[in-house]
Here is the input.
Amino acid sequence: MRHLLSAADLDRDRADSILNTAAQLATLQNRSVKKLPTLRGRTIANLFFEDSTRTRLSFEAAAKRLSADVITFTAKGSSVSKGESLKDTALTLEAMGAEVVVVRHGASGAAHRLAHSGWTQAGVINAGDGTHEHPTQALLDAYTIRDRLCAGAGDLDGLRVVIVGDVLHSRVARSNVILLGTLGVEVTLVAPPTLMPKGVESWPCRYTYDLDEAITGADAVMMLRVQAERMNAAYFPSAHEYSRSFGLTAARAQRLADHGIVLHPGPMNRGMEISADVADGPRSVVVDQVANGVSVRMAVLYEVFGARAQVGAIGNTEVDDFIGGEPDVQG
Amino acid sequence: MSKADVLLSGVRPLNEEACDVWISDGRIRQIGAAGSLVGDRHTVRQDGAGQILLPGLVDLHTHLREPGREDAETIATGCAAAALGGFTAVHAMANTAPVADTAGVVEQVWRIGQATGRCDVYPVGAVTVGLAGEQLAELESMASSAARVRVFSDDGICVSDAVLMRRALEYVKAFGGVIAQHAQEPRLTEGAQMNEGALSAQLGLTGWPAVAEEAIIARDVLLAEHVGSRLHVCHLSTRGSVEIIRWAKQRGINVTAEVTPHHLLLTEDLAATYDPIYKVNPPLRTVDDVAAVREGLADGTIDIVATDHAPHPHEAKDCEWSAGAFGMLGLQTALPIVVETMVASGLMSWAQLAQQMSVQPARIGQVDHMHGRPIEVGEPANLALIDPQKQWTVHPETLASLSRNTPYVGMEMPASVRGTMLRGEWTVVDGELE
Here is the structure.
């Protein structure tokens, strides 16, 4: 896999393989030394044009646990307002020897453009582009669902997952609809009609405006962050009314299947799309999602580097061997 | 430039029967059966066998960028591109810096155009001061200036205020002007990047819905009817817009409309490349919209083809989609694209092409005393000579524009402009600038 730009880049075998690799890597998290030498001497550039502490830290942790060198570039606002263009930044990082670029950008298609414009030869991983996609988030969500509901392996086929909130502006929703669809999950989108994308009837999922109906008996519900500024653009009248129809309260969460879980990509607006008692309650897997994000991103980095040159295999043997061997002093 | 005393032998005016056309002193001097004319001792004979003679093309919608953005295009380079595209007249849009909203600016553009000599440049005046949509510009002063402005437009920005639009339509009646509207409801298109539909939702690009164009056109034709004035609709792009114009014309409303070559050929799926070379305003639409604008042009609902030639420097396109500028080059590729989409497909004849790329735009722009004239004895020799068989491939670096933002890179064009003549002087010979 040369790049990961969209969840559509992953067929079922590839997605399963990444999730399986991530599961193996997750065992590292229980060790005191959490590092593998796999990408020693290789360089990853983290290119964050948008604020995103959690995704950036997650990719950084993933890269470092594979012993890669990490260059991090962060800039607020658009490339244009900063004066330095995406292109020039790409050229700079290429000159510094970055083989893989992890990019978060406010413009939809920025990762695609970086991969296909000829500005750089690096592999590109999309860490969120505008309102388009966020494929590693979808992978970590799928991983979390599998971990909780399928004993960490096998098949998501036939599970029912409900995605609720600002679907229109959500890259998380887009990537999840694609990836979970690939994995055989029955996805239902729930949003007020104003926040439902045009043409949603052609998406590989169901959609409804009725959260209570959709959530009944579902295996998992994923709550999307709703930004307050959407109110000013008349997408909905008030936080109160939004919350009443589309917020996940404890009472609503009871409609889930008994084993049903609650996901949120963060950061959460407690009291808006999710009530505090649900966010902190037993069904919530929000903290798992963060931990799983590191393993999944390690697996993605491994895949993308694997397409470039020989990278050592990651297996339990290697994990065991390495942990028994010399400590890695690289930072 | 050479003053021509030339006998074009065996050319086919409007693709009709081959004949000889003798041009001297800037006018068509004689027309006779093929092989029948000899000219006089100064006359240069030029074999035109197999070539089609058209009245020089007239573009009602060109961005020449001068003054203000001479890094993107100048009047001279834009006129060179126009001549190579078979044009003898272009209307230069007002969104320059400074804006062409005073007699001084339009006269400057007009004079520089005169000095280049390759193409007549008719400035379009801004409707509102600074294109700000707040206060009418001095329309009468521009109309009575040396530039003789008749077309007024805030192109790039819609005159969205209904009262201001009404007043502008009324005001230009005094001197027979026309308001050319860029139909785009601004609130419905905030941050818009591409046609709104299933694809924009999938790509995560903010949609530019068809209704934002259609709602303004519907309002404006009703305003034009109400005040009894004349409206021209720039670059319409949707099936709904065609239907509204058709309805308005049936009702007797004095409205004309244009479509661009790119909206006749290209569709929204190109946005999936995220390459802003395909970013244009109004955006590329659906296959169904393309079919509708072709039908509308063929049946005359849409009066003319206009290029919306919009040069941009490389850096304005060599970036992510949302940072990219709207617009594409059009002058040198307009004719072959109309040939491809309309003539080769059997939707129109060459005679109709001449109507919609020369005669009608000259009438709408009120330059029909000089351009868009019939190919008849005594008429000014503003002509384009087309080889309908000679194909060529678009290489941006070989285009005459200062900018390179053509969406047709590597595309095969089905016909070539071999010669262009302005008032009896060659501006283009054998496909090269004279």
Summary: Chain A has 14 helices and nine strands. The first helix of chain A runs from residue 12 to 26. Confidence is low (pLDDT under 50) at residues 320-331 of chain A. The two ends of chain A are 27 Å apart (CA to CA).
